[in-house]
Amino acid sequence: MERTLSIVKPDGVTLNVIGEVISRFEKKGLKVKALKMLHLSKEEAKGFYIVHKERPFYGSLTDFMSEGPIVVMVLEGPQAISLVRETMGATNYKDAAPGTIRADFATDIERNVVHGSDSLESATFEIKYFFSAMEIF
Ligand code: UDP
Ligand code: MG
User: Fold this and answer.
1) What b/e sequence results for 77-114 when a residue is b if at least 16 CB atoms lie within 10 Å of its CB, and e otherwise?
2) Long-range contacts, stretch 42-49, CB < 8 angstroms, 24+ apart
3) Catalytic site residue 115?
4) Domain containing 41 — which CATH number?
5) pLDDT tens-digit profile of 109-123?
6) Which atom of ligand 1 is nearest to the CA of 91?
7) What is the average pLDDT across 63-74?
8) How many domains does the chain have?
9) β-bridge mates for residue 72, sequence order
């Protein structure tokens, strides 16, 4: 069993696909173990994406991630990390496989609807960033 963190980003909330995104994960057999809606401050978005602090898109990405509410969740299942990444599709929606969330809903390389942890190490950091042990079921 593995746990991973996923986010419906501000564009996904605006596009009204919160339920659609969660449903796609559930259909893959993933279980929702924690869930909440929140609106990140710029500083909170910067902290979440700290691994990207040297990247040219860091400023724009953290503006985007703090522009409106998001939905964050912990998902659990066998190989949850790679399963969520497959369901999301490639970072650039133009490269995302047909039928993936990003291929279906993303509008830009930045505004790509969904986040998923990319490794066990990042999943551990990201889950802790948003949830205390008492909030995970
Ligand atoms: N991003 C961007 N421009 C890029 C690469 C990434 O705006 O050239 C944004 C995009 O929203 C992406 C996020 O930064 O989802 C984090 O980038 P990462 O490489 O970690 O992609 P992910 O793991 O989300 O597929
Ligand atoms: Mg990433």
Assistant:
1) beebbebbbebbbbeebeebeeebbbbebbeeebbbbb
2) 42/66, 47/129, 48/126, 48/129
3) yes
4) 3.30.70.141
5) 999 999 999 999 999
6) 25
7) 99
8) 1
9) 7, 36
